[in-house]
User: What shape does this take?
Amino acid sequence: MKTQNQLRPFGMKDKLGYLFGDFGNDFTFILSTMILSKFYTDVMGVSAGIVGTIMMLARFVDAVTDVTMGRIADRCKPAAAGKFKPWLLRMCVPVAIASFLMYAPGLAGEWVSQWSGGVKTAYLAVSYLLWGSFCYTGINIPYGSMASAISGDPGDRQSLSTFRSMGGMLAGAVIGVGLPKIAYEKITLADGTIKETLIGSRVALAAAIFSVLAIVCYILCYKMVTERIVPETAEDQKGPSVMEMLKSAVTNRALISIIAASVVMLLAQLTLQNMAAYIFPDYYVNADAQSVSTVLMMVGMVGAAAVAKPLAAKFGKAEVSVVSNLFAGVVMIIIWLIKPANVWVFCGLQMIAWLGLGVFTMVSWALITDVIDYSEIRNGVREDGSVYALYSFARKLGQALAAGLSGWLLEGIGYNSQAAAEGLQQTKSVLDGIFNISTLLPALGFVLLALVLWFWYPLHKKQVDANVAVLKAKRGE
Assistant: This one.
């Protein structure tokens, strides 16, 4: 393995490579958060409550698979390419295939309509577990752990966090703009009203295209990124057992608080994204507006990317995150209060909220590298994979809570999946409920996230700078 001095300096190639990694991740992840629930309620005819429950139960499997993958990543010997990079090549094809399989029934046409409810539910459960709990875990945890191995400099890590967020933003833009335009079809009901209907075969075709693009992005990430920090392997150190690691994690305030923050963040952000598949085609009867909303979201995120790094460098990542999330929460509360009748006013206000959320998104991945550093100082052992695995599990838990809560709330307000599958319109009370879920729940989540980061999370700017100095001295830098 080359020493750090023999490797090329950290630069734009690493940033772009890391961007492509999350581009690949989110070609399957964002697709699932944006359309999977809608696909199974409106195309497959599975109730929203069942879909949400399956996504929630899958997280109990992740409690095992995420930690296991983190331990495997920590314990494996570094290859010539590094410790984490090889997993990108090993898992890129399996995760792409598994993602496509979730939507493959859309190509079966009338044959799928003959499946019993139990068969449809079983197919969803098996395919969702294969993708999320095994294949996605197998590539996402090494990819996320790799950030702390690319560079130990806080500025470099903030750049990686920003570029990773931009990769996810670009994937979201491609999916969010393109999918609504090709996946929906306007139909006229018997009473003359217009209904936006999701077409299963088009969703499946889009999933296949995004799976191929994901593979391309993972390969680009592998080719462009260089690992510079080589952590000790199991042969060099006596690492803690799984039980010791979990016991340490429970008493690690920084790790537990960032896990709590991640759950709340995903609950708020993904509810916002999940419900877009309902509020635009159902409440506003304008699926094309979802594409416009995604473009405006990207504008807000680009604006956030421009200011995130200098603000974080001056005031601290946690401090900036608190303010940006409070801002996003206030904007969403305003949307809920005024309830704009015009879809374009709604899109514009959402863009302002995304500006606040975007600042936090740009620094969020750098927060976990701070936690990894803190844990190394605290425990005397560096375990990037294990710490990131617990963080990844928290993010999946937030994803599941968002999907589950959205599904249960849709069920609670009376959303009729059978009527949706038959191209019928929802009742006015259901439509009003969709609007409330889409605005009030994210608003509460953003405010709660700000409180967690300010009052519970301990790694504010002064402590982070001190930790970086300790680790530089330890490594003789």
Remarks:
- The CA atoms of residues 333 and 443 lie 6 Å apart.
- The longest helix spans residues 343-379.
- DSSP finds 18 helices and two strands in the chain.
- The longest strand covers residues 184-188.
